[in-house]
Design brief:
Blueprint: H1 2-25, E1 35-42, E2 50-59, E3 63-64, H2 70-78, E4 104-112, E5 115-123, H3 126-133
Antiparallel strand pairs: 1-2, 1-4, 2-3, 4-5
């Protein structure tokens, strides 16, 4: 009987140690990896729309990718806390945009802090996009 209790106790400790190690190996919230692809397309975001510009961004220990200002873009992306609508600012009121409709769509696809992200926003035209993003470094490419 005593051997049985020792064996069960040892097995329980091994299981507990094993599950603890697994829990520690999982990425957590703001500390997970980030690797994103950003696009600016002419159109409403349909798969057949023309991609005007695109950039890749990796925000791990260092900021890198094809984005021209990766560190600034990573900082701005991290400031959103995963809510990419925060990239959109109140439009710059000192900038006057024409009222014609020629849609432009921005997208963000990839992994942000270890979580899958697929986001897009359509603007009525390129001027409105520029005024609403208001110099945000994420789409400054």
């Amino acid at each position: 009987m005593r051997r049985h209790i020792i064996a069960v106790s040892a097995f329980s400790l091994l299981c507990l140690a094993g599950t603890t190690g697994l829990a520690e190996a999982q990425p957590t919230g703001a500390h997970g990896p980030s690797a994103m692809v950003f696009t600016i397309t002419h159109g409403r975001g349909a798969p057949t729309d023309t991609v005007m510009r695109a950039a890749t961004l990796s925000c791990a220990y260092t900021a890198e990718g094809t984005h021209p200002a990766p560190r600034a873009a990573c900082d701005a992306l991290n400031a959103t806390d995963g809510e990419l609508n925060r990239l959109l600012a109140t439009p710059n009121t000192s900038r006057v945009c024409p009222k014609y409709f020629d849609p432009v769509t921005v997208t963000a696809d990839g992994v942000l802090h270890g979580r899958r992200v697929a986001w897009k926003h359509t603007f009525s035209n390129a001027c409105t996009m520029s005024a609403t993003l208001n110099g945000n470094p994420v789409y400054a490419f």
